[in-house]
Amino acid sequence: MKLTTELRPGVDQVGYVDYNVRDFHSYDTRLGATYNAYLIRDEKVALIDTVKAPFAEQLKRNVASLVDLEKVDYLVCLHAELDHAGSLPAMVAACPNATVVCNAKCRDALAGFFDVSNWKFQIFQPGESLSLGKRSLTFVNVPMVHWPESSIAYMPEEKILFSNDAFGQHIATSERFDDEYDLPKLLEEAKSYYANIVAPYGKQTLKALETAATLDIELIAPAHGVMWRSHIDAILKAYPKWATGSYAPKVLVIYDTMWNSTEMMAEEIYAGAVEYGAKIAKENPTAPRLDVQLMHARKTTLTRIAAEALDAAAVAFGSATLNAWLMPQLGAVLDYFQGLKFREKTALAFGSFGWGQGGPEAIQKRLEVLKYPAITDAPIKAKQRPTAEVLEQCRAAGAELAKAAWERYSADQA
Ligand code: FEO
What we know:
By secondary structure, the chain is of the alpha/beta class. It is built from 12 helices and 22 strands. A 7-stranded mixed β-sheet has the order 1-2-7-8-9-10-11. Strands 17, 18, 19, 20, 21 and 22 form a 6-stranded mixed β-sheet that branches. The protein has a 5-stranded mixed β-sheet with strand order 12-13-14-15-16. The chain is elongated, with a radius of gyration of 24 Å. It starts with a strand and ends with a helix. The mean pLDDT is 96. The protein binds MU-OXO-diiron.
């Protein structure tokens, strides 16, 4: 198959839509993914980024359908991660007259993955432009969005920003532009992508956004997902919110359970929060409703939990006790949160135990590591089945989390 999409005459998307990928190093790509590469045919011919290595032949076919591979002058590498650079060796071999264009850190990163001793390199400095004839590319380094060597390229003559990982989404679709896809779903996937991939680098993202704000952009061409041409404002407004960790009025109750005791507690916390949310809605009829979600850690993917957690203002974590510790999938959630470095959230530890103890206590300790202020000094615990008193405590804690979430959200809006 050969399949390309024209962005402008002489500027085409030539990458690969991967309908089959379901695991992208732990990212649950339930909708598949895309690895976008862009071909610019001017007096000089440049290919921006490549695709994952298994799809190199597809990339070659797409490029060759538009231009003789011998006529490719530049292979621009904006990011050395292998979903974009994986087919670079194949393209270097297939395009004998091409020079690899990247920044110095990217060259070093490529050298860590591949034998580049025979590659021709042209190293760009930040702000430097590469003339392709009537059009040009200006390079900007955007370190840590997503790796230290990450960069973006702006084509002023066409007002196109080649943003690499930034503004991407993991979606496999025949629709290639934002106005061809359902916008709320698109923003949800862009948010999930941000939460799971870019979230630890909020400060660096904000810096990159400052640069983007100075550019006149008519089209954002990311390395993943659909291109933004009709809803550029929507994505450019969403990113600063995500990058600053702006709170939504949202409470998550994330738990794992063995014989349903922790689940009974989770449901009561959830009910307490929902009830408090109804009270807020009555007092503030025009305000957004409090979003309360119950998430079983073994029935909800880490990817989804992270996407929802990005802007949650309060979270309860619960676990039964297993081997005097917490249950493994709840542990995975807490580990994941630690690396993603979300903005602090008001928190609660809870859970159950039988003949041994340790699950809820382990969560309480992890809250300290996460630096999440807990609403109780010790976890709410149930021995075997929760008593009416314990369930009442859970309900009250749910209300308290809801109140805290509302206050955090309101403070952000002030
Ligand atoms: Fe899409 Fe950081 O690679």
